[in-house]
Each structure stands twice: as C-alpha cells, then as structure tokens.
Amino acid sequence: MIKTTDVIKTFGGFTALNGLNLNVPKGCVYGLVGPNGAGKTTIIKHLTGVYRQDKGEILIDGKSVYEKPPLKQEIQYISDDVFYFNTFSLKETAAFYKSIYKNFDSERYEKLKEIFKIDEKRRVNSLSKGMKKQVAFMMALSSKPEVLILDEPLDGLDPVMRRNVIKLINQDVYDREMTVLISSHNLRELEDLCDRIGIMHRGKMVLERALDDLKSNIFKIQAAFDEDIDDKLSAMPEVMNLSKLGSVRTLIVRGEMEPVSEKIKAYNPKIFDIVNLTLEEIFIYELGGMGYELAEQIL
Amino acid sequence: MSLQNKFFNSGLFKNNLKRFKWGSFLYFIILLISGPIAMALEYPYDGYFKHHHIPQFLCAIFAVPVIASVVVYRYLHTRKQVDMFHSLPVSRSAMYITNLLSIITLVFVPVILNGIVTVITAGAMQFNVTYVVISVLWQLFINFVMLSISVVAVMLTGNSFAAIVVTYIINLLPAAYVLLTTGIFTQNLYGYTETGTWSEQFVTHLPMVRYCNLLGTFYSKEVFPNLIGVLEIVITLLIAVVLLAVSYLLYKKRKSETAGEVVAFGILNPIFKVLITFAVSMLGYFAFSANDANMILMAVSVLLITFVVWFALEMVITKSVKVFGKYKGFLAFSVFVIAVCVSIETGGLGYEKRIPEADSIESIICSFGFESRGTEEITNREIISTITELHKSLVDDEEWYSGDEWATEYINERLYVEYKLKNGRTLIRCYNKLSYEREKEYVDKLFSHPEFKPCVYSVYRLERDKVSQINLTTNYGDMNIVMENTDGFYEAILSDIDTLGYKDLRYYAGNNLFRITFLEMVDEGIKEREYMHHLDYITIRSAYKNTIEWLKNNGYYEKINSSLPASITLKKSFTEEEEKQLNEYYMEASSGVTVAIEKMEKGQEIVTITDSDDIAEIIRMRNDGLLVLEEGRDKPGDYILLESPYGTVGYCYYDTAYEVIRKYLTDN
User: Fold this and answer.
1) Which residue of B has its CA nearest to A77?
2) Interhelix angle for B64-72 vs B129-156, to 10°?
3) Could you tell me if residue A113 is inside a domain?
4) Residue B599 pLDDT more than 80?
5) Is the pLDDT of residue B405 over 60?
6) Closest among B578, B639, B569, B638 to B606, alpha carbons compared
7) What CATH code is carried by the domain that includes residue A229?
8) Are residues B89 and A81, on separate chains, in Cβ contact within 8 Å?
9) Which of A97, B412, B442, B548 has the most CB atoms lying inside 10 A of its own CB?
10) pLDDT, average across residues B157-162
C-alpha cells in the first residue's frame, strides 16, 4: 500500500532521508521507530504530500502522493502537534473536514462524539492537549481513510482514551483493511498495536520486518559457565551483544533459535535460559550495532 | 454541493471567509466612518470628496491588501499550519487560487458595500453619485494592484513579518535606490542633473508613490484620463496579473519546509542581503559625503556600516550569531562598495570630464536658468562650438567647482546643456555655479550671436495670434493688470532682449520688476471647463528700458505704481553666522527654541513703514529698477531687505539708501 524507494531529502546541507526504502502492505499496522533525528517525521511529511522528495519514489496504492488530491482524500494524518483554526468549535471543525473530505461520514462522527464526549460548541484550541488529540482522531476516523498516518498519536491521551483509540483503529483495520503507519517512541504501545516494524537510523531503513519475525529472529540467552569462554562467545557471528553479571552471561543473539542454542549448549552451561526480547530491547540492540548506544557513563 | 476542482476548493473558500470575515467587517466600518457617515455629518458641504475619502485610499495603498495577503497565506509561514494545509486533499494550484479569490472577496466586498451605502447617502443629499462610483472603482483598482505585490512578497518569504517588510521593500526600495543615486550623483558628480534621466519618471510610476501623489484627486473625473490614462490602467492591471501568475509559480515551487525562514527561496538570500546592505551603505556614503567628511574617515565609516548590516542580515537569515566565518562574501562586497564610492568621488569614471566633440554634436538645447521656458534646439555650428568651449571651461577649472561657497550672485545662474549627438545618444549636464566674470568670454560670445537668443528666449517664437490675454504682475502685491493694448509691446520686449547682454538679461537680486504672462483661452466645449492656458512668460528686469518706456507711455506703469502694499518692512539681512544659528534652531523643536527664533527674527527687523506716500515713493524707485544690489556688495549681512506682506520689494544699503528709506534707518 505504501512504498518508498531510495528516497533522498536534504535540508540545506543536512541529509534527512538518505535513500529510504519503506514497505507497508495493505491492512497492516506499521510501526516506524528510530532515534531522534532519524527522519521519521520527514518521511511522514512526504507520505502526506507536505514535502516533496529530492530523489526517489513515494507511492501510495501505486500512485505518487505529491499533488494528488484524489489520493490524499484517502489519507489522514495526525501530527504530534495538531493545528486547529483559532476560532473554530468542534462542530465548525467537523464542518470544515466535511467540506474537504468526500468520505466524511457524519453518522460516524456522531457515534465518535458519544465515545469521546467533547462538547461540540467548545473552541478546539481551548481544549487540553489530550482532548485536541481526541478531536484529531474524531476527524480522521470520520473521514474513513484508506491510510492513516500517525505521528506520536497516543501522546497526551489518558489510558482509557488510549484503549478507545487503539480499539477504533483496530476496528477500521479489520473492517476496512485500513493501512496504518505509526511513528512513536513508545515502543511498548507499538508492540501491542503493530504487526510490522521499520527501524530508521540516519535517514535509512535499517530493519523492516513483521513484528513476529523480528521477535523470533532475535532473542536473549542467559547462561552461566564454569570456565571463561567470553572470547569464544563473542567470536560467534550470531552474538550481537555480550554482557556479564557475576558468572551469568547475557547474550543477545540473532538467527534461528535452535542452531544457536545448540552451539552455546556445546560449552556446557550450568544455567541456560532463553528469553524473548521486547521491542524496546530489539530497538536498543539493533541500533547499538550502528553506533547508537546507551551511554556507559552515568552523570 | 461543494465545488472542488483542480483550481478551486469551495470548502477552503468558505472556510477562509468564515475565519477572516472580522477583518472585512473592520475594513467596512473604517470605510463607513470615513465615507458616508463623514459625508452625512458635514452636510451640506461635500467635503467627503476632497478629504474624507483619503483614509479609504490610504487603507488601500498601505494596509488592507498587505494585511489580507499575509493573514490568508499565513499558513505558509508556520510549520504546524503548513503541515495541516498541505496534507489536505487540495492541490497547490487550487490552494493558491482559492486563497487568492478569498483575499479579493474579503477586500472587495467591503469596498463595494460601502460604495452602495455611499451612493444611497450621496443620492439622498443630492450630491453627484458619479464621483462615488469613480472613487469606488479606484479603490478596487488600487487594492488589486497592491495585493498583487503583497502576494509576491508572501510567496518569497518564510515568515509573516518578513512578508510585510518585503512588501514595503518591493514598493519602496527601487524608489530609495533611485533617490539615493540621484542624491549621491547630484552631490558628488559635477554637472549631474536628474533632468532627462528616467529616474524621476520611474519613481513616480511606482504604485505606492504614484497613488500617494494622486491622493485627494481620486474622486475627480479629471484624474481619469488626464492624470492616469486608460493605457496606464491596462498596463498596470496586466502587470498585476503577471505578478499574481509569478506568485502562482512561486507557490508551486516553494517548499513547505521553508516555513519560519526569512526567505523562502535560498537563492534569494544573497540577493536580499546585497540589495539591502548596498542601499544602507550608499545611504551612509550619501550622509558622509554631504558633510564633506575626510575620504579615509568616510571609507572607514561606510565599511563599518556595511559590516554591521551585512552580518546582521546574515544573522537574521541563518537565525544564528555564528556568521562571521562567512567573511569572504563580505570582503568581496566591501571591495565593490568602496570601488563604487571611489569611482564616484574621482569623477564617476570620467563622467565629469566627458564633453562631446563639437563635430559629433547634432544639436544642443541650452539654458542659463533665468529664462528657461521652451528653449529650442540649436544647430548653428558656431554656437555649438562656443557652448562646448564654455562647458570645457567650467569643467577644467577644478578648483572652482570643488569649492563649496554658494554666494548669492550665482543663484539662478547656471548652464543647462543637452547635447544630441550624431550617434543618436544624448548627454545632459547642468552646472549650477556659473560666474559671468569667469566665463565672460564665452557667455558674451553666445549672447551676441544673432541666432542664439531666438533659441533660448521662447518669446521670439510666441504665436501672437493665439494670445488672448496678457497679465502683468509684481511680486510685492496681489496686483494683476490685464493689458488690453499691446501694439508695439512685443517689439519693445524683443528690442530689449536683442540689445542687452548676459549681465543685464540675467536675474540679479532686486532686478526682477514685473512678470508678463501670455495666456490663451481654452474652450473645451463646456462652459465650466473654459480656462486660461499659460502660453509663455517673461520677466521684465530693470535693464529692460524699452519695455518700461512702453509701459509708461501706455499708462500701465502708473497703474503698477498706484497699486501699493499695505506696509514695507526694513530688515537687516542675516549674516552667514546668524543664518547658520537660525537653521540650527529650526532643526530643533521645543518651546525654548521657538522663543529663540522669534527673538532672532525680531532682532533682524528694523522698522515697518506704513506711510502711504513713503510706500508709493519706494515702489516707484523699485519699479524704476533702483532697489537692486550692487555686485560685490551682496554678501549676507551687507544689505537691507525691503519686504512687503507678499514678497521682497527690493534691497538697499545703509550708506547709499535713498532719503525716503534713510530717514527710517536714522530714526532707528
């Protein structure tokens, strides 16, 4: 549904996107993660037609998105800091969306009003950050988009509203095969929501995979050995990271679980345990290998 | 049903009207107060057309279009808004055009509504509603022209403040450049004159300047087509449309990420920086050269100004104070600025010394300042040769023209010369300091040539059968005598001009006696539109004996003498020191200074003569050409001025004053 090929974007002398390739299948909830400055917001602005790439191709549903209003009718974008017209109430904001988006469903809007319970007459700009986000979801979901692009979407929402929003998104994904791209630093949330993950770093996609594949391909082994075999363990190509706490060695390992386990078990560990990694850990270890590591020093 | 296509989006249009209707309403209120309400309050006086509609035009020229453009396109200047707007399913073409139409609607509707209200009010008061319609059409026209400029400025910039500044820069920077160039050249280039250059025409045709010059006349039927022709209106509208088309292209080209920057197109940054810095540097050069500052001091000061402005702009553009690393551009630019200043200071790359060879000249238009109306092209080779010799003499004497003294004797004595060269080019020079004593040889040669005077004195070429009235006026009263008998009058004037030399023909303090104006009745078919058209004029000076004699013989001289001012005040002329002090006082503005000025001016006054016999005697002497300054005794402080309530009557000295004046001097 969404496909970018070798996208390059520079701002002055700074390269924000450096040959980015991204693939989001239809009906997929795609989590876009990466360190600050990786280029996530930049690619999102390209996907929503705000920016134009210097080089490369950006396609949604096989069509270039820039300056394509019919295609953009099918795309909704909720930014981290949503803009609303200063004097507009929720009702007026809805009227504006209705005048712009052909698919705006008034019945759906009425139903969403019941869920979010925001006074229609209140000026949107006078609402709290979380409530403004709720308004953004109301507008986006009422427009029944084919593609929903979210930048830090749940930021500012209370736990109940988070659940509501996630439920509503999931409903549209299941019912209408809506494609969702979410950029967030809250990896715990993405883990619950996404079925595909892309990790960006320095304007490039460093890893893009289904979340299940990703988790099955990288795991943590905790083991204790009688003798010092750290050199041997480190030399194994599958081992991404090795740390020790007393006699216990923690290894972050990439690859098929069975063959790697067998290799380690050959050193006769006293303790051997396999633990699944969280998305946050995967993120840290993947980027750790690219020079984006946790600081050793604590001030 | 909403109208959405490639070039228009009704949802966005309605949204704009809804968001900014308050601005339109406010504009309407201003128009209403300064229009029909003001007109009703002043009924039955129709002052609205002369005064009250001026605020409406000021709004159109300076405020409304720029505010409307900046406000409606403001989303381009803030990141949050541009993200939202450009993610909407509206093409940039539709976005630009819809917003433009919104601006036009928001601006035009109040003007039209106010026009309707004003027409109704004017109709009810039995005023001529045509004037209202004309005024409304002009307001729509000016609003459209000015908003086309503002929209370009909005497209070129990345933030709203910069957009407003750039709007005024586009409107006024060319004028500032032209005025600065003219000022610098006039000040520093010997012989430079603005006359015949494109600069004045250029400045007065810049929209903001042009419409300000026409303020107060827009209600009038005479503005169109007399002051602005249909062609100019059409061309202006075409330019405005072209500007809007350029803005459209700029909109399509501009990148959303430039929101918040100063300039939206990186390529314009150096142009913007260079244009502004150069203008300020030249302003500095102008100020220092006006004060005759030392060359080194001037160069250092100009460089300092250039440095400050250059890097200040760099900081604004880059939003950083770490700009001094980019010194190479500054160095190159500084060299350019200094090269410009030095080239002007050293004669403008040969400008000052450029005199065409007599052989290369096709014809010359020449004037000496004292009778310059309607000079004719001179083709006589001998005269052309003498003029070039005079020109060379003026240019060669560097010491003379580099001096800064401006004695009274040189005022109104100048050489204006316009060479039409055989290669089709024109060369114009004007020298404001011409001394008869220095240039006697050439000037006498010219004035004694039989073909010269008919060329420079238009009265020779006057079509006498067109003259329907001759007026005779003086500068000491409000008298205007209409001469009915003119038999032999032209001959008397021409015989004076024929026989007199430069020294007697020129203007000299006190020698202007009367002014003769030749008028033609112009009838445009409508009775109210008949008026007198000035065909020509000539000033009768004290040396014009034949003309004075003719006036005496025909009874006009008596009439002139019998028309007396109510009083004549004797005033001591200010010395140079006093003049300087007084000018300094005038420069300040406080009650203390006002008192000082009053004291000083009172101190200058000797006595006011009110005795009618004495006034008649003084006027008689004046009309005989006796109250003239002597050459060599005309330095400030030397003489006494005789002033009527209408103007200067003449001059005299303490020691040689005639009895009628001397008795007042002795008494006081």
Assistant:
1) B87
2) 40
3) yes
4) no
5) no
6) B569
7) 3.30.70
8) no
9) B548
10) 92
Cβ A51–B257 below 8 Å, yes or no? yes
Residue A68 and residue A197 share a domain? yes
A24: its two tokens: 């989001």
Provide the residue type at B3 as one letter: L
Q: Tokens representing B62?
A: 């300076």
Whether A121 and A191 share a structural domain: yes
Instruction: Find the length of chain A.
Output: 299
Rounded distance between C-alpha atoms, residue A169 and residue A141, angstroms = 8
Q: With DSSP H G I counted as helix, E B as strand and the rest as coil, what are the percentages for chain A, rounded to 5?
A: 35, 30, 35
**Do A230 and A167 fall within a single domain?**
no
**Alpha-carbon gap, residue A140 to B11, rounded angstroms:** 17
pLDDT, tens digit (0-9, with 9 covering 90-100), for B53-65: 788 889 999 999 9
Banded pLDDT at B49 (limits 50, 70, 90): low
Q: CA of B19 to nearest chain A CA: how many angstroms apart?
A: 7
Residue B13 has pLDDT above 60, yes or no: yes
Residues A90 and A167 in one domain: yes
Please indicate whether, in this complex, the C-beta atoms of B15 and A99 are within 8 angstroms of each other.
yes
Q: How many helices (H) and strands (E) does chain B have?
A: 26, 11
Location of structure tokens 């010394």:
B353
pLDDT at residue B523, as a whole number: 61
- Which of A232-241, B189-198, B540-549, B557-566 comes out lowest in average pLDDT? B189-198
The chain B residues in contact with chain A (CB within 8 A) are 2, 9-12, 14-15, 18-19, 80-84, 86-92, 94, 255-257, 266
Q: A116 and A31 share a domain?
A: yes
CATH of the domain at A38: 3.40.50.300
Q: Which residue out of B4, B87, B261, B319 would a mutagenesis test of the A interface target, given it has the greatest number of A Cβ atoms within 10 Å?
A: B87
Tokens of B212: 């300000």
Q: Which of B12, B80, B82 sits opposite A81 (nearest CB)?
A: B80
What count of Cα atoms within 13 Å lies in the side-chain half-sphere of residue B434? 29
Which of A152, A171, A202 is the last residue in one of the domains? A202
Range of the structural domain that residue A274 is part of: 218-288
Closest CA to A279 of A221, A209, A181, A201: A209
The stretch B619-633 carries a mean pLDDT of 83
Q: Write the ipTM.
A: 0.87
Per the structure, how many domains does chain A have? 2
* A207 part of a folded domain: no
Sign of the Cα torsion A175, A176, A177, A181 reads negative
Cβ A201 vs Cβ A290: under 8 Å: yes
Q: How many residues does chain B have?
A: 668
Taking the CA of residue B88 and the nearest CA in chain A, the distance in Å comes to 7
- Whether residue B154 contacts residue B164, with contact meaning beta carbons closer than 8 Å, is answered with no
A106 in a structural domain: yes
Mutation for testing the B interface, residue in A100, A152, A181 having most B CBs under 10 Å: A100
The string of DSSP letters for B302-343 reads: HHHHHHHHHHHHHHHHHT-S--TT-HHHHHHHHHHHHHHHHH
Same domain membership, residue A89 and residue A58: yes
CA angle at A174 for the pair A170 and A180, rounded to the nearest 5°: 55
pLDDT above 60: residue B1? no
Per-residue pLDDT tens for B454-497? 888 888 888 888 888 888 888 777 677 888 888 889 999 999 99
Residues A139 and A245 in one domain: no
Do B48 and B39 meet the contact criterion of CB atoms below 8 Å apart? yes
CA distance A6 to chain B (A): 20
H/E run at residue A246? none
Q: How many CB pairs under 8 A join A and B?
A: 67
Regarding whether A239 and A175 lie in a shared domain, the answer is no
pLDDT range class, residue B403, cuts 50, 70, 90: very low
Among the three residues A173, A202, A231, which one is the final residue of a domain in this structure? A202
Provide the chain A residues 28-57 that lie in CB contact (below 8 A) with chain B.
45, 48-52
